[in-house]
UniProtKB/TrEMBL annotation:
NCBIfam families: PRK09082.1. This is Methionine aminotransferase. It comes from the Bacteria. Its cofactor is pyridoxal 5'-phosphate. The lineage of its organism: Bacteria, Pseudomonadati, Pseudomonadota, Betaproteobacteria, Burkholderiales. Residues 30-388 form the Aminotransferase class I/classII large domain. It comes from Castellaniella denitrificans. One of its GO terms (molecular function) is transaminase activity.
């Protein structure tokens, strides 16, 4: 009987991130694939969490999160984006951005609904939409071209995908994997969409504090009309180099948050109390967030400069801690085939960008691009670059 147990996700196996990390371990490769730092969170943050444990913050936190952390989040967002969320009713602390996204989709999307995804898109979205009984409608970005080597969102195509069944549009900026950020004209396009169509926006902003070259992260929350239609999601794990802490948050208008919390309370109920107390304390430091973009820009620039000594051509990234590289100089195979070969023969693991599409094996998902994570120690990046220099001897295959 159990052998015929029906699956809710019959075509979903392990993620590409787990697969490439396992391959990296098998071949003793340097893992620039999965997006996690190989260095510790800031010492003051670690001490703040340890102090919270010593002070007795070890039992269940309130379901929405510790009030002092929700207040700190509200203050941060108002300073950053000029929008005031009510800590008591419009902010929930979640078990990472993943739980915030899942709870939001399960709460707000219903059987028969459609949800628009912009490809390449993070691999969590489509399965979560299916679990909610809805359908994902995928709209591809315009891929890099010779005269414009960057991905671009075609908002006309996005609008063309919206129907009477459309419940939500999922956004992810700064964008994983492309590194694209939103510009004022993008927010203009989104305002037009929500003004014309009764849809919600689910805005995954896990890399909100990692933007480069003097840019400012433009969240939909910076525009009142968009904020009224938006669930904003973010990740302290990504922000503070502590992905294993699985602490994030979501913000939304009161009526929307009420529905999200109904799912949240029966999913995890509440999130690690000492982590919340420690992060709340750390956020009170005026410089807790100020140096993050500069810290990561140095790493981006280090990797970009080093790649000039290899056949891999780096694409410009405006945010996140990921860099795409054009690998067409070393072969025209499927991107996954190139990534496996790079791991096995050169000793550097990456992620094929095709994995962020519905079908990674079709030509439309393969642009000879691999994603590298530069959230690594300088010594790790330098060692990876030394290995990648061996690609000079490769020929196209």
């Amino acid at each position: 009987m159990l052998n015929s147990l029906p699956s809710k996700l019959p075509d979903v196996g392990g993620t590409i991130f787990a697969e490439m990390s396992a391959l990296a371990q098998e071949f003793q490769a340097i893992n620039l694939g999965q997006g996690f730092p190989d260095y510790s969170p800031p010492d003051p943050l670690i001490r703040a969490v340890a102090d919270a444990m010593a002070q007795g913050h070890n039992q269940y936190a309130p379901m929405p999160g510790l009030l002092q952390l929700r207040q700190a989040i509200a203050s941060k967002i108002e300073t950053q984006h000029g929008h005031a969320y009510a800590p008591e009713s419009e902010i929930t602390v979640t078990a990472g951005a993943t739980e915030a996204l899942m709870s939001s989709l399960l709460a707000l999307v219903h059987p028969g609904d459609e949800v628009v995804l912009i490809d390449p898109s993070y691999d969590l979205y489509a399965p979560a939409i299916r679990l909610a009984g809805a359908s994902a409608v995928r709209v591809p970005m315009r891929p890099p071209e010779t005269n414009d080597p960057s991905f671009r969102v075609d908002w006309n195509r996005v609008e063309a995908a919206i129907t009477k069944k459309t419940r939500m549009l999922v956004l992810n900026f700064p964008h994983n994997p492309t590194g694209l950020t939103l510009k004022p004209e993008d927010l203009d396009a989104l305002e037009f969409l929500v003004g014309k169509h009764p849809i919600l926006l689910l805005s995954d902003e896990a890399y909100e504090h990692i933007v480069f070259d003097g840019q400012t992260h433009l969240s939909p929350a910076t525009r009142p009309l968009l904020a009224a239609h938006t669930v904003m999601v973010s990740s302290f794990g990504k922000t503070f180099h502590a992905t294993g802490w699985k602490t994030g948050y979501c913000c939304a208008p009161r009526a929307v948050m009420r529905e999200i919390q109904k799912i949240h309370q029966f999913t995890v109920f509440s999130v690690s109390t000492p982590m919340q107390a420690g992060i709340a304390q750390y956020l009170r430091q005026s410089d807790a967030l100020s140096g993050l973009s500069g810290f990561y820009q140095k790493k981006r620039d280090r990797l970009t400069a080093g790649l000039k000594e290899t056949p891999l051509r780096p694409l410009h990234t405006e945010g996140t801690f990921f860099l795409l590289v054009d690998a067409s100089a070393i072969g025209f195979s499927l991107e996954k085939t190139l990534a496996i070969r790079l791991t096995r023969d050169i000793g550097v693991a990456s992620i094929p960008v095709s994995a962020f599409y519905a079908d990674p094996d079709v030509p439309a998902a393969n642009h000879h691009l691999l994603r590298l994570c530069f959230a690594k120690l300088d010594t790790t990046l330098d060692a990876a670059l030394e290995r990648l220099s061996g690609l000079k001897s490769w020929s196209r295959g």
